[in-house]
Amino acid sequence: MKTALHFGAGNIGRGFIGALLSDSGYHVVFADVVEKLINALNEYKSYNITILDVAPDEPIKHISNVSGIFSNNPEQLNAAILDAEIITTAVGPNVLRIISRSLAAGISERKKQGKEYLNIIACENMTGASGHLRDEILKHLPEEDQEYMDTYVGFPNCAVDRIVPPFNPGPNGNVLSVGVEAFFEWIVEEPAFKGPRPEIKGMKLTDNLVAYVQRKLFTLNCGHATTAYLGYLKGYKTVDEALKDKSIESTVHAAMKESGAALCKKHGFDEEEHGKYIEKIMNRFRNPYIKDDVARVGREPLRKLGPADRLVGPAKMADEFGLPKDNLLKAIAACLLYDNKDDPQSVTLKKDIESKGLEEVLEDVVGFKKGSKESRQVLQAYNELKA
Ligand SMILES: NC(=O)C1=CN([C@@H]2O[C@H](COP(=O)(O)OP(=O)(O)OC[C@H]3O[C@@H](n4cnc5c(N)ncnc54)[C@H](O)[C@@H]3O)[C@@H](O)[C@H]2O)C=CC1
Ligand SMILES: O=P(O)(O)OC[C@H]1O[C@](O)(CO)[C@@H](O)[C@@H]1O
C-alpha cells in the first residue's frame, strides 16, 4: 500500500488533507507532537468526520488506514520519510522551520537508500509555503545532497480551502473526531511536481497557482479576518454571530469587493464569476452549523498584517491599479486594535503600539510609510473604531 506522511494531525490534517489521502488509497501516517492524538491514531486507526451543513449527502465520513508517530522522534520520523510516497503538512506557517531539520535528515537518508521521487506539499495559509519549507530544509541539508534534492524532491505550492473549526465531539466522542464544512478546494502547482503526479481524489492541479492562492487568501481569508477583528471589537464570539451585525456585514462585503476588483485586474478573473465566488464565501461564513470563534480566525495578528497576507496584500494590489481600498484599510485598523491577552502576537502588537506609536508599527509591520496617505487613513480608521 502507498504511504503518505502528513505533519500535523490537527483540524486541516484530519479534516481535509489526511482524509483525501486516505480516500485515495494511501495509508496516512500523521506526525504530531500531541501525545493524545498519536495514541488515539494508533489505537483506533480510524476516525469520523462530521459534515457541518444543512442536509449533507454523507453526514458522517469514516476515515480509516491511519496511524501516528511523534514528530520529535528522529528514528520514527526518518523511517516514515523513507517510506513515504508523498509528504504533506498542515502545522501552521511558523512550524515549517521547526520540521525542516528532520526533513533534511530524511532526504539525506533517502539519497543513501537510493530512493527516487518524492513531493512535499505544505498546506498552510501562506503564499509559497512549500517553497519556504524547501528554503528552510536547504539550510540543514549537506551540500553534497543538494543536487539529489533538486532532482528528486518536488515542492509544489498549493492553495488549501476548507473551514475546519474546533469541534466538540460530545460526551462519547473521540479526540480524533472532526467537523468540517462540505466545501473544499485544494489546488496544487502542477509544474513543480517531480516524477509521476500522485493521484489524489479532490486535488486539482494548475499551472497558475499564484492567482488561486491570492484569490483564496485575499477573498476568503480577508473577509474572515475582517469579520473576526470587527466582531471581536464589538464583543461577538463567533463569525456567524458577528455577520448578523449589519454594519460588520457591509464592511466585510465591501472589503471583499475591493480585493475582488484588484484580483480581477491582476489575474483576469471574470468579474461576474468572481462576484459569485464572493457570495458563496459570504454564505459559507453564515453557515449556522459552524461555530467558528473570532479569536481562532483572528489568531496571530502580526502574521495577518504581513505585507503579502490577507489584509495588506489586497490593499497593496488595489493600490497598484488605483482602485478603492477604504474598507481594506479599515480592516487593517481593526486588526491593529485586536486586544486578546491569550494571543501572544496580540500582546506583542499592543505593547509595540504603546511603546513605538501606531505610525511606527504601521511602517515596520505593514510597510505603510509614516505620513503616507495609507498610514493616515489607517490612523483615522483606528481612532474611529477605538472611539
Ligand atoms: N482550520 C482551517 O479551517 C484551515 C487552516 N488552514 C491552515 O492549515 C494549517 C493548520 O491549521 P489547523 O489544522 O487549523 O491547525 P491545528 O492547530 O488544528 O493543527 C496543527 C497541528 O500541528 C501540530 N504541530 C505543531 N507543531 C508540530 C510539529 N513540530 N510537528 C508536527 N506537528 C506539529 C499541532 O499539534 C496540531 O495538531 C495552518 O497553516 C492554517 O492556516 C488552511 C485552511 C483552513
Ligand atoms: O489559519 P489562519 O491563517 O490563522 O487563519 C484562519 C483562517 O484559516 C481558515 O482556518 C481557513 O482558511 C479560515 O477559517 C480563516 O480565515
Record the strand order, biggest sheet: 5-2-1-6-7-8
Give the terminus-to-terminus CA distance.
61 Å
Q: What is the H/E order?
A: EHEHEEEHEHEHHEEEEEHHHHHHHHHHH
Question: By helix and strand content, what is the structural category?
Answer: alpha/beta
Which hetero ligands occur in this complex?
Answer: 1,4-dihydronicotinamide adenine dinucleotide, 6-O-phosphono-beta-D-fructofuranose
Calculate the mean pLDDT score and round it: 96
State the name of the first-level CATH class of the largest domain: Alpha Beta
Report the count of strand segments.
Answer: 12
Q: What does the largest sheet look like?
A: 6 strands, parallel
The unreliable regions are: none
Number of helices: 17
CA-based gyration radius: 21 Å
CATH superfamily of the largest domain: NAD(P)-binding Rossmann-like Domain
Organism: Pyronema omphalodes (strain CBS 100304) (Pyronema confluens)
Protein name: Mannitol-1-phosphate 5-dehydrogenase
GO cellular component, one term: cytosol
Catalytic activity: D-mannitol 1-phosphate + NAD(+) = beta-D-fructose 6-phosphate + NADH + H(+)
Characterise this structure:
It catalyses: D-mannitol 1-phosphate + NAD(+) = beta-D-fructose 6-phosphate + NADH + H(+). The protein has 387 residues and is an alpha/beta fold. The protein has two domains: 2-207, NAD(P)-binding Rossmann-like Domain (Rossmann fold, 3-Layer(aba) Sandwich); 210-386, N-(1-d-carboxylethyl)-l-norvaline Dehydrogenase, domain 2 (Orthogonal Bundle), CATH 1.10.1040.10. The chain is 51% helix and 14% strand. It has 17 helices and twelve strands. The chain has a six-stranded parallel sheet, with helices on both faces. Strands 4-3-10 form a three-stranded mixed sheet, covered by helices on one side. It binds 1,4-dihydronicotinamide adenine dinucleotide (NAI) and 6-O-phosphono-beta-D-fructofuranose. 1,4-dihydronicotinamide adenine dinucleotide binds at residues 7-13, 31-34, 71, 90-93, 95, 98-99, 123-125, 160, 162-164.
